[in-house]
Automatic annotation (TrEMBL):
GTP-binding as UniProt keyword: no
Annotated organism of origin: Zhongshania marina
Top-level taxon in the UniProt lineage: Bacteria
Swiss-Prot/TrEMBL keywords: Cytoplasm, Fatty acid metabolism, Hydrolase, Lipid metabolism
Protein name per Swiss-Prot or TrEMBL: PaaI family thioesterase
Keyword Transit peptide on entry: no
Amino acid sequence: MSASEEQRQQLRRISTQLSEILDSSQTLGGSDKELAEIETALSKLNSKMTALRDRKLLEFYNPDFAGDFRNILPCSPISGYFNPIAPDLRIWQEQDRVYAEGRFGKIHEGPPDCVHGGIISAVYDQVLAFAALANELPSLTASLTVKYRKPTPLLTPIRFTTWLEKRKDRHIIIHGECHSGDMLLSSAEGLFIMYKKNSTGN
Ligand SMILES: CC(C)(COP(=O)(O)OP(=O)(O)OC[C@H]1O[C@@H](n2cnc3c(N)ncnc32)[C@H](O)[C@@H]1OP(=O)(O)O)[C@@H](O)C(=O)NCCC(=O)NCCSC(=O)Cc1ccccc1
């Protein structure tokens, strides 16, 4: 079963709500009574959602992403609009480069007030893979090296830039950089291996 436009919009709004709930959970405080009320409300919501959980409406891959890379893998934990843990990034292509821009919130904190290194790596993994796709070289990550130059601040505009560095047969090298303003925060190199052609040559 696939989602109607109305259902897509509803699911997107639900994901946004859940995302805000997750973010709030990181700095939550209140009296015993207030926390108990939240626990009860969430428990009810949880039961309702559990009852509907095996009726997935969203596809794994959306070829009609219309230039918005957050639509390609709707439930990706890094880029999917419908996954509440995905960071709030805009991801798009210009010529053969893919860019991601946005801010990370408390849910992605590693060192105090900074983004967790694993989250930064995960974003590189996804946006470098998108750069391969943008160059019509769909592939999987074989290895990923990230150089962390400066801590990546939370709640601050950050921009990732990625580009195809080299291709030889099925081996693809993609590079990426992450900046806050003019400051280089980190860089990455990924080796991607293109999907094998099947026996029909596709
Ligand atoms: C697919 C492949 C990487 C390669 O296997 P096959 O196709 O069977 O190819 P084969 O083994 O025949 O090798 C071909 C050539 O490549 C070379 N080579 C291979 N590996 C390495 C290496 N590590 N390092 C260096 N070289 C390596 C190998 O020597 C050979 O070289 P040759 O031609 O003789 O000179 C496989 O190991 C695999 O599935 N790994 C797990 C991948 C995975 O889970 N990644 C994480 C999830 S993806 C993600 O999250 C991003 C994403 C999100 C959403 C959407 C899209 C992307």
